[in-house]
């Protein structure tokens, strides 16, 4: 199969990954916005992430149970139709923001987010493998890496563009939640158009031959069972930080900025993931040592320039971020493309940065917290790689369990929200500290978890 025949399809899919990342990161804008509109406590505001990412768990669980009973549902309807269904469900979730704002009902917003999350769950299951088969097998990883990079670009742009639309362009203090009406109508229309386009274009059939086994045999592998908890803590910690970052920057002892100004810094948190993913991709290439590190450094600088250009901020106000990029580069060098070692190093630095954010104030604390973003970049792929090593016929089941662990993004922010109401927002970041400490353990000791069956499949540092 020639990738040349499917260039237009890949462009559409890449756009889909961008929108997917954009809408996910929009939750970080909705949290401070709806918190003010409905005068919510922190834990109540975190129900936004609970509803959205809880849908990932419910959707994945239902899909997993159906696969055990009737076989892989996507295999029955086709990956193309699976993407179309996912787009339609996501579009419906976006359209429901209009009546939610019209009736000014917080519960209605949560229901809309839950449906949006269900649509994204379907896209997660269908779109990732579909990208891999739209072209030559030997370039499948490259195509998926490109799509994931555009997903990160979406999370980088969302705080700037989405924040501008909601906090400034459509904002009316006297109009309740009306600022979200037009943006989410536009998002809904884009998903609807995407569904129509996908239904009409000619795409190849794809059959997944992976065996779906009954029972919970996959959990007998310690690298998977412990890795499921690692995914839970990773997504939980990452989303919790992003969810509270605008409010954190708004604290008087930190920067005291309004939401409209604080949103620009959020782009550096999520943009760090993009920087780390590009660097991770190059670190796995066939380049020689010196040439590889030079390419990694150049890509990091170019990615920074992109984020800086998007944010529209003064250079003097973001120079500390260059130090964080340099630290990330050194950590990549020290990790030597070994999955567990790199994971442990990145998680250790994340713990140190979080403790700094908790114990200091001003811009130093702010940049320490923002800096965690760049070290999140390789956590999902490295944990995933380690967790499924040697699973054999249990690989599909294990993958489903790992996707279900995205539940961490629903629960961890909620736990931190409860703690923030009790002891203050700054101190509440001990919750993600605990999350990353577990990842430190899993990373450095992962080699001991992998059974003899997988001893010949030592994972390399991945990129997702």
* CATH architectural arrangement of the largest domain: Up-down Bundle
Summed up, the domain count is 2
Q: Judging from the principal axes of the Cα atoms, what is the shape?
A: globular
Distance between the termini: 23 Å
Compute the number of strand runs. Answer: 0
**CATH homologous superfamily caption of the largest domain:** MFS general substrate transporter like domains
Class of the largest domain in CATH? Mainly Alpha
Radius of gyration, CA atoms, in whole angstroms:
21 Å
The whole-number mean of residue pLDDT values reads: 83
Main beta sheet, described?
A: none
Helix content: over 70%
Domain Major facilitator superfamily (MFS) profile: 9-450
Main location: membrane
Membrane topology: Multi-pass membrane protein
Organism: Reichenbachiella carrageenanivorans
